[in-house]
């Protein structure tokens, strides 16, 4: 029997790797936007993570006709009133690199003492199929380190230490990060939903 297919609406290899690791375990054939180089990039014009995740999943579904999952993630620092939040990817400006964004975050938090460096990663994942749209949330609480630590992961991982751990995300191995991370938790909910609703990925017969 053919496995049901899900297309990850992202060209970010780190995200694709994390998402595939969890979804592929549920007997799903996982493709990504990297398999379809002609898919247009979707501009994140929403003002919430949920709007952006839904926008990406719906746009890529419309073009590809395949069941799509899209995630949008933000890092919220309490001392910065929840910034960078939905603007995490362009915190240091349009076209900013991971390193530019981390530098800007550390500079904004320069005089903030350790106790007040609480923060969280928040992920929203949208699943769009011909049966409709479903949304899954994942949150990981932690704090922003004063100095980057570790070389694994991506984005803000070197400066984020999840609560209850002595290492940053960038110092953890991928499977450990996936088990506790914002994206991992949202994906576990998506995975459970697909296990309980297998018809969701099957094409409706007309
Ligand atoms: P987006 O979901 O691609 O819009 O990501 C927003 C920003 O957060 C980007 O700069 C990412 O690099 C960063 N980001 C997303 N997920 C993670 C993560 O799991 N760890 C660290 N940074 C992340």
Task: Draw up the topology in text.
Elements: E1 5-8, H1 13-23, E2 29-32, H2 49-64, E3 68-77, E4 83-85, H3 98-108, E5 118-129, E6 132-144, E7 160-162, H4 174-180, H5 182-196
Parallel strand pairs: 1-2, 1-3
Antiparallel strand pairs: 3-4, 3-5, 5-6, 6-7
Helix pairs in contact: 1-5, 4-5
Bound molecules: inosinic acid.
Task: Summarize the structure in words.
The protein has one domain: Maf protein (Alpha-Beta Complex). The chain is 29% helix and 24% strand. The chain is of the alpha/beta class. It is globular. Strands 1, 2, 3, 4, 5, 6 and 7 form a seven-stranded mixed beta sheet that branches. A hairpin with a 2-residue loop joins strand 5 and strand 6. It binds inosinic acid. Inosinic acid binds next to strand 3 and helix 3. Inosinic acid (IMP) binds next to strand 3 and helix 3.
Short description:
This protein has helices spanning 13-23, 49-64, 98-108, 174-180, 182-196; strands at 5-8, 29-32, 68-77, 83-85, 118-129, 132-144, 160-162. It is α/β, with parallel strands linked by helices. Inosinic acid is lined by residues 71-73, 75, 88-89, 98, 101, 153-157, 169, 181, 183.
Radius of gyration: 17 Å
Number of strands: 7
* CATH architecture label: Alpha-Beta Complex
Q: How many domains make up the 3D coordinates? A: 1
Mean pLDDT score: 93
Anisotropy-based shape: globular
Approximate helicity band: 25-40%
* Ends apart, CA distance between termini: 21 Å
CATH topology: Maf protein
Q: List unreliable stretches of 5+ residues.
A: none
What assembly state would you assign to the polypeptide chains in this entry?
single chain
Bound molecules: inosinic acid
Helix-strand pattern = EHEHEEHEEEHH
Main sheet makeup: 7 strands, mixed
Question: How many helices in DSSP terms?
Answer: 5
CATH classification class: Alpha Beta
What percent strand?
15-25%
Strand pairing plus helix content: what structural class? alpha/beta
